[in-house]
Amino acid sequence: MSTPARIVFYGVAGAGKTTLAARVAERLQIPLTSADSLFWRPGWVKVDVAEQRRLMGEVFAQDRWVVDSAWSSVRTETLERADLLVCLDYPWWLTGSRLLRRTVRRVVTKEHVCNGNVESLRTMLWGREAILVWWLRTVRSRHRSIARLAHLAHPDVVVLRRPADAEEWLATLGG
After folding, report:
1. Residues 23-61: pLDDT tens digits?
2. What b-and-e string marks burial along 87-116, b requiring 16 or more CB atoms within 10 Å of the CB?
């Protein structure tokens, strides 16, 4: 496979999509777009779907891009324009423990997530959009989605099942 120019990452919360996407973008010298930074406004206000599509359209207009997540609202468009889909299909216990540690750290340190937003006990535990609730609701369906996506004719698909696989794959990339 030649070096891809338009790459999207997919997986459950806590898999490490943003971290790996940043490493790939740096290695290949391709601009990185954080879907969360585009789609969450200050105060954890979600951007409406029409605006999500418009914002991603601006990203897609570029020749080269790395996107750290394929939100369902723009997944079809993202996959149609991508050269490569990287699926992080890690075990539930790994992604769950990573997500819990990351979220607790962010709550304690008041680390900025995106657009000035910080996580709190409320954003961690309560409501449909709470990150731990979101993970519980999506972990099984993401694994099923990855199984379906792995057979796409376009884009090329890489399925990574453990962090060591990600390291091995990263070492094969040009740059």
Report:
1. 999 999 999 999 999 999 999 999 999 999 999 999 999
2. bbbbeeebbbebbeebbeebbeeeeebbbe
Name the band, by pLDDT with cuts 50, 70 and 90, for residue 1. Answer: low
Q: Which amino acid, one-letter code, is at 17?
A: K
Helix/strand/coil (H, E, C) string of the chain?
Answer: CCCCCEEEEEECCCCCHHHHHHHHHHHHCCCEECHHHHHEECCCEECCHHHHHHHHHHHHCCCCEEECCCCHHHHHHHHHHCCEEEEECCCHHHHHHHHHHHHHHHHHHCCEEECCEECCHHHHHCCCCCHHHHHHHHHHHHHHHHHHHCCCCCCEEEEECCHHHHHHHHHHCCC
169 vs 4: CA distance, rounded Å: 13
pTM over 0.90: yes
- Pairwise CA distance, residues 147 & 155, whole Å: 15
pLDDT digits (tens, 9 = 90+) for 77-102: 899 999 999 999 999 999 999 999 99
